[in-house]
Amino acid sequence: MPTQALTTTSFEQTVLDNDIVLVDLWASWCGPCRTFGPIFEKASMTHPDIVFGKVDTQDEPSLAAAARITSIPTLMAFREGILVFSQPGALPAASLEQVIAGVRALEMDDLRAQASESPGAKSKAGDSPTARTTS
């Protein structure tokens, strides 16, 4: 499935309505973003069960700010509405495939239990796009 543009109005619902969502935060003026874009697009065609979304930080500055993005591109991965990965920098295809495999392999019952044990931890996409980060 091709990548889809995510906006402040579609971001939260997309993350909450799908099992796995990968988000590429990028800008057209960013050289590494232009390098990573085709890799991300190709992976979206290889993994039709995953939603691949792109956030243009120029068009969606409030979304980038809410996600506390300081470098682009930044790749975020959500599983069942929980942010499970966030990392700046353009990844090569093999590394992106490793991230995808890792996200698929997550034991979500354990992750939800850890999130509920952390006092004040925000774990849903609607609470904070950067709530749970692992690498």
Write the layout of secondary structure elements.
Blueprint (H helix, E strand, L loop, with lengths): L3 E2 L5 H7 L2 E7 L4 H16 L4 E6 L4 H6 L7 E6 L2 E7 L4 H13 L2 H10 L18
Parallel strand pairs: 1-3, 2-3
Antiparallel strand pairs: 2-4, 4-5
Would you write up a description of this structure?
A 5-stranded mixed beta sheet has the order 1-3-2-4-5, with helices on both faces. 39% of the residues lie in helices and 21% in strands. A hairpin with a 2-residue loop joins β4 and β5 (82-88). It is α/β, with parallel strands linked by helices and 135 residues long. It has helices spanning 11-17, 31-46, 61-66, 93-105, 108-117; strands at residues 4-5, 20-26, 51-56, 74-79, 82-88. It has a single domain, classed as Glutaredoxin. Residues 122-135 have low confidence and may be disordered. It contains 5 helices and 5 strands, in the order βαβαβαββαα.
State the end-to-end CA separation: 25 Å
Secondary-structure arrangement, i.e. CATH architecture: 3-Layer(aba) Sandwich
β-sheet strand percentage: 15-25%
Give the strand order, joined by hyphens, for the main sheet.
1-3-2-4-5
Number of domains: 1
* DSSP helix fraction: 25-40%
* Discrete helix count: 5
Give the strand tally: 5
Order of helices and strands: EHEHEHEEHH
- CATH uppermost class: Alpha Beta
Going by helix content, strand content and strand pairing, the class is alpha/beta
CATH level 4 superfamily: Glutaredoxin
**Shape category:** globular
pLDDT averaged over residues: 89
Residue stretches low in confidence (pLDDT < 50, at least 5 long) are 122-135
